[in-house]
Amino acid sequence: TVSLSQLPDQPADAPTTPRSLLACRRAGVNPDDLVHRPMHEFIKKYQDHEIARLHYDKKEMQRQFDVQAVQRNYSDVTQNGISEAEYNLMRKSEVLKPLVKEFVQLKKTEFKSERQIIEEIEHQLQKQSLKQKEIEDFLERKNIEREKRQQEGLKRIQEKEKLQKEKAEAQIQILMQKSQNFQHLKEEKQKIQKSENQRIYEQQIQKQQHAEHLQNTKRLQLQMQLEEKKEDGEMRRQLAAQNFQQKIQQKEQEQREKMMTEQQRMEYFKQLRQQQLEREKEEKQRKFSQTRQKIEEFELTTREKKRAQTSQAQQKFQKSMETINQRQEQQLEKLREQAAERDRLARQARETMEKIQNEKKQRVFEQEKMRKEKFQQLANTVVKSQKLKNEEQQIQIELRRQQAVRSVQTGLYHKEKMAQEMQRKIELMKEKEKKDQERLDAIFAAKNKMQASMRKEQLEKYFCKSGGHGSPKIE
């Protein structure tokens, strides 16, 4: 494994550790671009020492710049750590791949005559400078538009998150108010039930006292008429006792029926509350799914727009290059015809000069030979300088293409990071809702338990006061 912390000055292998790859992704650099390429590879490729030296210097300068940028990101990663979204992105096994096709394809032309070289150099330099300006303006406009779209997308996402948060807080407040109202109703019902039980208990005591008074009067009457109506009095006592027991049993039956109806009513309220909570939960899940679908649709549309824009730009650039090449070929053809005409005139002039000046033929021939040699040397130097300029322009275009590719890669990296952070926020909101629901369920369970215990104590007190006869077992 190769790490950026131990990267040599001329590395032979690309970095492979997770933090190093994350630093490369942050900078938008391909890890293979950090590998040092020796001079003999360029000499073998270009077959010219000066052109190879030019490519080597530019490549090494760009590599050093990339190494510095990646090491800055690596120090930031090691000192400040990484976010959860970047950790999820680190788990992907793929290293950065080129996502944008070649913007420029230069066509190498061969120059056949000395005069064509001089004229073609000026014409080509003007056209290439204009084309480079157009490419730079196009890339700047695209970068500005991309930054605007990213800022607008971030604003929309922040506004949506704020609205969702406010809705969730409003729903929680509504639930708390409903729970408080429900508790208040329960307390009022308990007070009414308590007063009703107290009234029933007092009525029972009065009835018992009245029954005892009747029994005492009957006993006095029975004692006075004991001798005459002994058997009749015994029967009346038995009937009175039976009637008293029947009344007590009827009262107990009525109390049991009231308790059963109250329990059924409480169960019905509880079921209604559970159904309402389930409906609210389903509504929240539906809203979250809708927001997630909208985010995914927004990402798909932005990707498709970017692809369409890049393909249109490439097609326009290729068409413009084809038209430029056609014009250059037409101009070269005209220059060839002019050169042929000039050569023909030169031959005629030489023939006339040979006829007129036979004596000066040798001297003119030597002068012409020397002139041609000088011109050939000059042409060779001009051709070589033109080749160097063309190679330098090609290197500059390649560097701009790499910068465009890296800007696209960094944009995609930040978008993936934002998507991971958004997914994490949604998960945290779901967990918060789940905890709030569990808290509410626990509160309702504790309230129900407390109400059951209070009801149990009331019943025990009632049966203890009534004498404990026939009291049911309370669980």
Task: Please describe what this structure looks like.
The protein has 475 residues and is an all-alpha fold. The protein is built from seven helices and no strands. It has a domain at 259-370. The longest helix has 127 residues, at 230-356. It is rod-shaped and about 195 Å long. Mean pLDDT is 73; it is low at 92-112 and 469-475.
Features:
mainly alpha; single chain; 475 residues; coiled coil
How many beta strands in the DSSP annotation? 0
Described by its quaternary structure, the protein is single chain
Low-confidence stretches: 92-112, 469-475
Task: Quickly give the structural class.
Answer: mainly alpha
Give the gist of this structure.
Mean pLDDT is 73; it is low at 92-112 and 469-475. The protein is built from seven helices and no strands. It has helices at 18-27, 39-46, 49-80, 84-90, 114-224, 230-356, 361-465.
Strand-helix topology:
Layout: H1 18-27, H2 39-46, H3 49-80, H4 84-90, H5 114-224, H6 230-356, H7 361-465
